Structures are given as structure tokens and as C-alpha cells.
């Protein structure tokens, strides 16, 4: 399994926003969606504020492949299930990184529906 380089982890993990484009059935990329991204250890995560019913989240489930860009780094990725073991840690990173946006806005990504729609971004090499 491919892993992020240290520079990629730092650059993407520190970026305010990430652009995510999922692949359609025919392999073409959808229009990128802008979202928040967090780093936990050597992994990068995104969450859907609208849970599993969010349009961009549903798009990631088609081929489970896409492309992300943040801080000048662009990478093809696989969308992996994040599991639930790190929910609390991911919540805390979101709260810390994006605290200036206030609890009401952060609440959109630290709730049960968003937790259920957490994706780990795995680089394709």
C-alpha cells in the first residue's frame, strides 16, 4: 500500500482547504469540491458535512478513486473507509485546526452523520 511522503503529509495536512474530485464510472473526474482536510498520524481524512447522503460523498463511492489537491500538491488517491476507531481523535483535530470558524460550523464535521462519512485518502503510486 502506498503512503504519503513527509512533505505531502505536512503540506496537505496544514492546508486550509483541499480540492477533491472523484472519478465517474467512465474514469473521468467530477468537478472538484472544496472541503476541510485533517491529518492524524501518517494519514489524511475528509468528512462529509451531509453524511453519507452528501452528493460528493456518494460520488466517492462509485469507483473509490479520485484526485486531491492542496497547498500545491496534487495526487491521485483511493478513497478508503476510515473505520470508527479514530473518530474522537479526528474530531479533536478538526476542532483544533478549524477553531476560528466557531463551534456551530465545526459541528458540521464532528457529529454522528459526518463521522459515518469519514474517508481516509490513500495515495496511488
UniProtKB/TrEMBL annotation:
Any Pfam family hit: DUF2255
InterPro entries assigned: UCP028498 (IPR016888)
UniProt-recorded name of the protein: DUF2255 family protein
Amino acid at each position: 500500500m502506498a503512503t504519503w511522503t513527509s512533505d505531502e503529509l505536512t503540506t496537505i495536512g496544514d492546508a486550509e482547504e483541499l480540492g477533491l474530485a472523484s472519478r465517474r464510472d467512465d474514469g473521468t473526474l467530477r468537478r472538484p469540491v472544496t472541503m476541510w482536510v485533517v491529518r492524524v498520524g501518517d494519514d489524511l481524512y475528509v468528512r462529509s458535512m451531509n453524511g453519507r447522503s452528501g452528493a460528493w460523498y456518494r460520488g466517492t463511492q462509485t469507483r473509490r478513486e479520485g484526485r486531491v489537491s492542496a497547498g500545491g500538491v496534487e495526487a491521485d488517491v483511493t478513497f478508503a473507509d476510515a473505520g470508527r476507531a479514530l473518530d474522537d481523535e479526528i474530531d479533536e483535530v478538526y476542532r483544533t485546526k478549524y477553531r476560528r470558524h466557531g463551534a456551530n460550523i465545526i459541528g458540521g464535521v464532528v457529529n454522528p452523520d459526518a463521522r459515518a462519512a469519514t474517508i481516509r485518502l490513500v495515495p496511488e503510486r
